[in-house]
Amino acid sequence: MAFYLKNSRNIINNLKSKVGLSSLMKQHSCSCLNHNNYCRFPASTATSPFAPQLNNLDLNSHKRGCLFMSQRFESTIAEKQFASVQNGEDNQALDFPGGKIIFSPDMRFLSESPSAHTYCFRVLDDNGQLIKQSNYIQVSEEIAVKMYSDMVTLQTMDTIFYEAQRQGRISFYVTTIGEEAINIASAAALTSDDFVFPQYREPGVLIWRGFTLQEFANQCFGNRADYGKGRQMPIHYGSNKHKYFTVSSTIATQIPHAVGAAYSLKMDKKDACVVTYFGDGGTSEGDFHAALNFAAVTEAPVIFICRNNGWAISTPTSDQFRSDGIAVRGQAYGVQSIRVDGNDALAMYSAVHTARKMAVNEHRPILIEAVTYRVGHHSTSDDSTKYRPAEEIEWWRMARDPVTRFRKWVESNGWWSSEAETQLRSSIRNQLLHAIQMAEKVEKPPVEELFTDVYDDLPSNLREQEKLLRETISRHPQDFPADVPH
Amino acid sequence: MLGIVRQKVLGQSLQKVRPGVSLLRSYSSAAKQMTVREALNSALDEEMSADPKVFLMGEEVGEYQGAYKISKGLLEKYGPERVLDTPITEAGFTGIGVGAAYYGLKPVVEFMTFNFSMQAIDHIINSAAKSNYMSAGQISVPIVFRGPNGAAAGVGAQHSQCYAAWYASCPGLKVLTPYNSEDARGLLKAAIRDPDPVIFLENELLYGESFPVSDEVLDSSFCLPIGKAKIEREGKDVTISAFSKMVGHALKAAEILEKDGIDAEVINLRSIRPLDRSTINTSVRKTNRLITVEEGFPQHGVGAEICASVVEESFGYLDAPVERVAGADVPMPYAANLERMAVPQVEDIVRAAKRACYRSVPLAAAA
Ligand SMILES: Cc1ncc(C[n+]2csc(CCOP(=O)(O)OP(=O)(O)O)c2C)c(N)n1
Ligand SMILES: [Mg+2]
């Protein structure tokens, strides 16, 4: 393999032709602005108290918001290359397979973290007011009201199902409290042609797509009407009709699956993309890394949405990784990435909407890091006050509640009233209580469902097993549960 | 031809058959009670205190004290250097554990459940199990992989699989399956002290169960031999082999059978690899009947291996077909009614034993 050296002047020409000088200039001016506009992100330093930092951050939010906008959604790759070219003015370059490498006499190690934390895109301030000059995607009244209603539905469903678990009516539950905006706003920004590969804290996507409260209840109760035929734990929803793949318990496995599906969409020339969700914890699995790399190399139309909610059961992000959150990793894999305030529904909507366009039109993966907080316990098997301060939870539940924040914005547009609020909440509550009662009444899955679907066709050995089981049940009915429909 | 092979094998193994050593060791007479969780915790604690090379690693083992509180108090006692909370990367901490073992440490790696060890199985099979052999004995791998295995209650297919047969099919590994507190203490200590990689399969539903333990079991020097089964209950009419939670089921079945005049012998396998073939065959030669019980899938299961061993070594002693009681040949369903039918119940064992003893009409005839 022959490496040869060239004068770096060629590089500038090279870059000019590749990127376009005007774009280089624009990127350059953006990066200047960014330097004045440093901001820190709370969830990446879980060991320090969250609240004070965020308060600081909020003081500057107007200024930061508008300055940040000028660079929104644009790749920073050109900017970095331009900087290297300048530094390497009098040095030589190595024409290396995959790109030129510029030599430098400076022995400088790349820092373990960028000098400033990655910016966080936000449109609404903590009071639900639009930050001046925000560059966001406008949402119609109809969409905004549906978004808000669905966020309330999700919140109410969590409260009531959680209670049902505490009463012993279902065996397990996981809430999405605090992450309603990520759930609903991202779903709203997609089209019904897009495929979803969820982790488990994204039932809001299904709500948005029209999965009914009765359908949720049927799954949690594992009854005969459950589309999963009672085969999976509560909250492992799935619906082909809604292009929502059945939740898998094994962390992060959905991420490479999403890339594979996106690759198929691309092969089929479909005008659609795949969206996959995962937590901060999930990014530690090898599957995350393989998925990002493959998505970049195969140019698959996939949107990776990481819900960086600060915790993976009891593990804070500081024990999970030492990178500046998740967005920076996208860059390392050659994937355009953005960090978004996950508690700002409008920012989430805008980022996903834009990401979708880029993914579908340009055939490229996009990584979105939605910064948020897991307000509930990890699951009904967990008591999170054992490992994190109650005040921290309370602060996020109250002061940073994404539902209230979005409501304020919807209200300020004159699209919502307190009467509508009261009516919505009581109606959803009643629908949920009814759904639970109905789900409880529906009988459990029948014997045959123990054996179907292991394979597409029931093989003879399973047919024999079923026959044997039925015979045994009829001979020894007292040895078997009474609630087995035949 | 097959017959000749069988006789040859039989001839060889007859010399190997010794009375079960475990028969002579009966520690379960004293009145003190201990949960399996306490047994595991105390075994870890004592081995960590006895040997500074021993350390514990896994998701949530430190601050959270383990997903099932097995490592309670250990972080406080031994500090974060020896009780390591890891990121969610099973392939990562398993590989890192294996590397630490190469270097001479004695890692105890906890999987939240053995289902998640599937993320890391390459390091277990291709690295841990084979390195001593491939390096011609230069690199030993004294590591323990432990955590709950098999069916818990209401957690579905991806949290409810038994991996005993999987790991037991791999040379280089030792596979232990404790049932009660005595087993948990004695076998975990043996696993940690052992120079080879050991797969230690616990059961979530047993963690909270209390069992009587003698003073000897509580002594910090207590240790059980790897590769020895234990006769939990002596009997003369039918042998029931079981491991982990199924030992409890087999003992309950034996009580029920006793009322019908059937005297069942229950073998607690304790070790799946090495498998204590001599204890099993000695028992079958006495009772002439065998029922194997396991929660895992029937095909290529532990029962299949035991059955093959008995056919090879004690065929002439069998008075009835061997029956395997195993999990249904399907992934575990969640719905409680289906789940119950997918895992072996005490009644299944009772019925199988009665069939073996010709006390009930065979199933096919009754249909
Ligand atoms: C492969 C695998 N390892 C471990 C687990 C156990 N587990 C379930 S959820 C979880 C934490 C996930 O945290 P994160 O990805 O941040 O999602 P969050 O719960 O915060 O939404 C862990 C470790 C699992 N389900 N699968
Ligand atoms: Mg998380």
Automatic annotation (TrEMBL), chain A:
- Identify which top EC class this enzyme belongs to: oxidoreductase
Q: Name one GO biological process term.
A: branched-chain amino acid catabolic process
Q: Which residues form the Dehydrogenase E1 component domain?
A: 151-447
Under InterPro entries, the record lists: Alpha-ketoacid_DH_E1_comp, DH_E1, THDP-binding
GO CC, sorted alphabetically, is: branched-chain alpha-ketoacid dehydrogenase complex; mitochondrial matrix
Source organism's superkingdom?
Eukaryota
EC identifiers of the protein: 1.2.4.4
The UniProt catalytic activity note for this protein reads: N(6)-[(R)-lipoyl]-L-lysyl-[protein] + 3-methyl-2-oxobutanoate + H(+) = N(6)-[(R)-S(8)-2-methylpropanoyldihydrolipoyl]-L-lysyl-[protein] + CO2
- The reply on keyword Transit peptide is yes
GO MF annotations for this entry?
branched-chain 2-oxo acid dehydrogenase activity; metal ion binding
Q: Entry's Gene3D superfamilies?
A: 3.40.50.970
UniProt cofactor(s):
thiamine diphosphate
Listed under subunit, the entry gives: Heterotetramer of alpha and beta chains.
What is the protein's given name?
3-methyl-2-oxobutanoate dehydrogenase (2-methylpropanoyl-transferring)
Annotated organism of origin: Theobroma cacao
From TrEMBL, chain B:
Gene Ontology BP annotations: pyruvate decarboxylation to acetyl-CoA
Keywords noted in UniProt: Metal-binding, Mitochondrion, Oxidoreductase, Potassium, Pyruvate, Thiamine pyrophosphate, Transit peptide
Instruction: From the Swiss-Prot or TrEMBL record, give the protein name.
Output: Pyruvate dehydrogenase E1 component subunit beta
From which source organism is this entry? Theobroma cacao
Q: Could you give the subunit structure recorded for this chain?
A: Tetramer of 2 alpha and 2 beta subunits.
A GO MF term: pyruvate dehydrogenase (acetyl-transferring) activity
Q: Where are the transmembrane segments?
A: none
Report the residue ranges that make up the Transketolase-like pyrimidine-binding domain in this protein: 34-209
